[in-house]
């Protein structure tokens, strides 16, 4: 009876905490004395990670961003920002087979607005216009990663 009640309630998630695990910001333009009137070309790489914590029902999901801004009309790097931002979650009523996508889609979606704010503040405080990241489609990112892993495994099956 308790299992039936839990399934009727549906998935439940609480954010227990959020933190910056690691961050690095290099203002290369200022170090080299490059002109300030360059047009930037910003590249953002996103990596996700999730793991179970020792406490029952608790998980940690992290978003790792590598942001590189280069001059559009050359190879000069303006700045590099690397940040590993994590959230600690308490999750109930998620079936085991749905837990992996839940941790890598729903959890990052919950903490992303806070990460976006940090990136905006750091780039602004670093002497650049604030970088306002576009929304990340975590579902598409998850699907692409699953497809990439399947493609990697496919040749091994033929051998």
From TrEMBL:
Subcellular location: Cytoplasm
InterPro entries per UniProt: SecB, SecB-like_sf
Coiled-coil region list: none
Keyword terms, alphabetized: Chaperone, Cytoplasm, Protein transport, Translocation, Transport
Domain of life (superkingdom): Bacteria
Pfam families assigned to the protein according to its UniProt record, in alphabetical order: SecB
Primary location recorded for the protein, binned into one broad class: cytoplasm
Family membership noted in the UniProt record: Belongs to the SecB family.
Database matches in PANTHER family: PROTEIN-EXPORT PROTEIN SECB, PTHR36918
Complexes and interactors: Homotetramer, a dimer of dimers. One homotetramer interacts with 1 SecA dimer.
The protein's role, per its UniProt record: One of the proteins required for the normal export of preproteins out of the cell cytoplasm. It is a molecular chaperone that binds to a subset of precursor proteins, maintaining them in a translocation-competent state. It also specifically binds to its receptor SecA.
HAMAP family per UniProt: SecB
Protein name per Swiss-Prot or TrEMBL: Protein-export protein SecB
Protein source organism: Roseobacter sinensis
Source organism phylogeny: Bacteria, Pseudomonadati, Pseudomonadota, Alphaproteobacteria, Rhodobacterales
Gene (UniProt): secB
